[in-house]
Amino acid sequence: MSRKITKIERTAELPSRQRVVAYARVSCGKDEMLHSLAAQVSFYSNLIQSNPEWEYVGVYADEAETGTKDSRPEFQRLIADCRAGCIDLVLTKSISRFARNTITLLATVRELKDLGVGVSFEEQNLHSLSGDGELMLTILASYAQEESRSVSENQKWRIHKNYSEGKPSNNIRIYGYAYSKGKLTVIPKEAEVVRMIFADYISGMGKNAIMKKLTRLGIPTKCGGRWSESTVGSILTNEKFIGDTCLQKGFIADHITKHWKPNSGELPKYYVEGSHEAIIDRETFEAVQAEMTRRAAKANHPRKSTFSEFSGLITCGQCGAKFRKKINGIGTKYAKATWACATFTYRGKDQCGAKRIPEDILKAKCAEALGVHEYDAEKLKAKVAVIAVPDDGVLVFTFKDGTGRTLTWENPSRRNSWTDEMKAAAREKVKEGHANGKC
Questions:
Q1: Dist. CA 308–CA 210, nearest whole Å
Q2: Which of 79, 176, 293, 343 is the most exposed place for a label (fewest CB within 10 A)?
Q3: Which residues of 108-135 are buried (b: 16+ CB within 10 A; e: fewer)?
Q4: Domain spans in the chain, listed from the N-terminal domain onward
Q5: What is the rounded CA–CA span in Å between residue 310 and residue 308?
């Protein structure tokens, strides 16, 4: 008897495993919270890998990130991977761990639902893809947001109580001092820099000049970054350097955005005299405040706006900063506009030596790049995306259609740039010098 072999075609697809991840979060960096985060990561890693129907993709964990914000780095990475089609199911402990902001929660869950990605909330025993999932989420998320508001109000009460007792609420980080166990202690090396800043300002130097000096001397900031005018200004106006502390200079506007807002009278302030060792004597500090007021009043004159079609368009190839407009000889008939690198202007030639570009030459080169006889600002805005300055005398135009053009320029000699009127004025000045016996 001969054998007969019959092929039976497959009639059903084998079930594929779901690609599963977990999301965990703790809102502060304290040791006990970090242990909790590690426990969550370990628990979900084991849970997913022990289920034969699930494929383990990973665990996303945010450390010291509040749930009312949707800018959490791991949370954003999770959403990006969901959009990329890498995930089918997200496990999380509870709604409050996923998001305390109702709007963020619902918008995220709805987007993931449209992508075919489910979110499972263990504590509430709720799955976003179920029939009544969104209704329950709306109700429970509102409770989570209200809980966040209640926690925020309790924290505010504690902070206000500390302020009324003259106690700072959080860690203080200020140049010249170390902060430990509620006390500020002087750091001698940094204190010398603070005294130098005050002395330099009293002697006539401006904040920009002091900033450049600190940079030139290679003195780091408190956090190791670069000095700025605002940093110098904050030192010159900070009462902590005379041994006092002003509490509640600002506050968190609301528990959702967590935005810090300067206190302009919305809440009381508390001024504590003699709270710690001083670095600057009161006479020097008050003299600096008076000098700052005097200089501000002297500089408080109306200025014409320097914004133009070139603002934000020209990029320095040496440092990456934008070129800004400068007008030399303001108020005189010889006033001339040039465009200079912002780093060169505010931080000095040591930080960037990019050459200034006279505005008349810049406009002429723009007309040449656009292929027109006369400069046209509207055509420039319509066609040019970026003007790069990779080197002195070089302009690289990138057009909005993706094409580009490189042009070179050079300054005419000073002699050729003088008008007949300027030459006549110079001759008269020389004659006056001879008449007065000065030449």
A1: 30
A2: 293
A3: bbeebeeeebbbbbeebebbbeeeebee
A4: 18-149, 177-299, 314-408
A5: 5
pLDDT value at position 439? 46
Paired sense of beta strands 183-186 and 18-25, if any: unpaired
Range 34-60 average pLDDT:
88
Distances (CA, A) of 13 to 16, 247, 319: 8, 67, 58
Question: pLDDT tens, 213-255?
Answer: 998 899 998 888 888 888 999 999 988 899 888 776 665 665 4
Tokens of 209: 């000049």
The DSSP bridge partners found for residue 25 are 62
- Please give the Cα distance from 70 to 208 (Å, whole number): 37
Q: Which residue carries 């302030």 as its tokens? A: 269
End-to-end CA distance of the chain: 133
CATH class of the domain defined by 177-299: alpha beta
Whether the pLDDT of residue 161 is over 70: the answer is no
CA angle (134, 139, 141) in 5-degree steps: 85
Helix, coil or strand: residue 179: strand
Res. 5 pLDDT band, cuts 50 70 90: confident
Amino acid at the residue 353? G
Q: 18-149: which CATH topology?
A: Rossmann fold (3.40.50)
Rounded Cα distance between 298 and 256, Å, is: 42
Q: Is the pLDDT of residue 104 over 90?
A: no
Number of Cβ within 10 Å of residue 277's Cβ equals: 12
Residues ≥6 apart with Cβ < 8 Å to 177: 184, 185, 186, 187, 190, 240, 276, 279
Contact 54, 17 (CB under 8 A): yes
Q: What is the mean pLDDT of residues 321-350?
A: 81
| CB contact burial 375-400 (16+ within 10 A = b; e otherwise) | bbeebbeebbeebbbeeeeebbbeee
Q: Show Cβ contacts of residue 388 under 8 Å, excluding neighbours closer than 6 positions.
A: 314, 315, 317, 395, 396, 398
State the amino acid at position 265 in one-letter form: G
Contact 314, 389 (CB under 8 A): yes
Cβ–Cβ under 8 Å, residues 338 and 349: no
